[in-house]
Design brief:
single chain, six-stranded antiparallel sheet, disordered N terminus, seven-stranded mixed sheet, about 20% helix, about 300 residues, alpha+beta
């Protein structure tokens, strides 16, 4: 099973201006959801929906010929829960009574000149009320700098409930930049994620999961969520927001203000010294001129 899903192959094929506004969409299990897709104004033959579950291969959901209203639904999606809305420039996917197996990334695509093109994808995250298990994420204490290393923490607590199989934890990111889909880390990716261990007491169990981010870049900005599958139910954390200090913010540090103030004071002192020196030189020049005038006046008196 692939543990890190970047979906880069989709980007390489080309989106052809297919718009899927939401890169991350969350809802409760059992709710009805609509995943939006806006198509380009160029010619194409067919419109299609695909989905990719975590660690799974692409699976076709529907196919529609552009000039027809009939929709072909593929195996596994013929139970009536999947419907599409077909209008000019629109090919939305509706899912009724969502289930756990609907958690996936959904790609809207078109076929033109024999080539299949996808949109950037929408990751659908579904959760349910689970009072016995909670996932709490610790905030980052300070804003990060580019090149820093940070560790995201997810604290999972299960109260008065024992279940086989333990926890399965997934990490995903909601990026501010809509040009990229959310990046998902499965709990098997131990290079990225580490389980600090679990502690049990008489009433609860607390497990801590961490996600290491090294040599941060601007592309790492966003909100990170941990999703926990426990006792057959899914809960997810409150999110950890990662943002970077901008140039304007970094220049407002106390050290910068001290240095700037000292430079200003130094410049003022230099200007004052130059002014005093110039003033002194002016007085000296006046004295020299007066002496010359006195000498000249004496010479004129002595002349017959």
């Amino acid at each position: 099973m692939s543990t890190v899903l970047f979906f880069a192959f989709v980007c390489c094929i080309g989106a052809q201006n297919i718009e899927q506004p939401k890169r991350l969409q969350t809802s409760k299990l059992g709710d009805d959801v609509t995943i939006e897709c806006y198509l380009p104004n160029t010619d194409f033959n067919n419109m299609m929906w695909y989905k990719q579950g975590i660690g799974m291969k692409l699976q076709a959901i529907s196919k529609t010929y552009i000039y027809m209203t009939d929709v072909e639904y593929f195996d596994g999606n013929t139970d009536g829960r999947f419907k599409v809305t077909i209008e000019k420039g629109i090919y939305h996917l509706h899912i009724s009574l969502t289930k756990k197996e609907d958690i996936a990334t959904y790609f809207c695509g078109v076929v033109t000149l024999g080539e299949l093109y996808f949109g950037p994808g929408t990751f659908l995250m579904l959760h349910e009320e689970h009072t016995a298990t909670t996932a709490l994420q610790e905030p980052i204490s300070d804003k990060a700098h580019i090149g820093n290393n940070i560790t995201l923490v997810c604290r999972v607590q299960t109260v008065d409930e024992k279940c086989a199989g333990g926890h399965h934890v997934y990490w995903f990111r909601e990026a501010a930049d809509e040009s990229h889909p959310a990046i998902i880390y499965a709990d098997g990716d131990m290079k990225k994620q580490h389980e600090e261990g679990c502690e049990d007491d008489s009433t609860s169990q607390i497990c801590i999961y961490t996600l290491a981010k090294r040599n941060l870049s601007l592309s790492d900005a966003g909100t990170y969520y941990c999703a926990v599958l426990a006792c057959g139910k899914i809960v997810f954390g409150n999110g950890t927001h990662l943002e970077f200090i901008t140039d304007s913010e970094s220049t407002a540090t106390p050290l910068f203000l001290i240095l700037a103030s000292s430079n200003i004071i130094s410049m003022i002192i230099i200007i004052l010294l130059v002014a005093v020196r110039c003033k002194d030189q002016g007085r000296l020049s006046d004295l020299v001129i007066k002496r010359h005038l006195k000498v000249l006046s004496r010479l004129e008196i002595q002349m017959p």
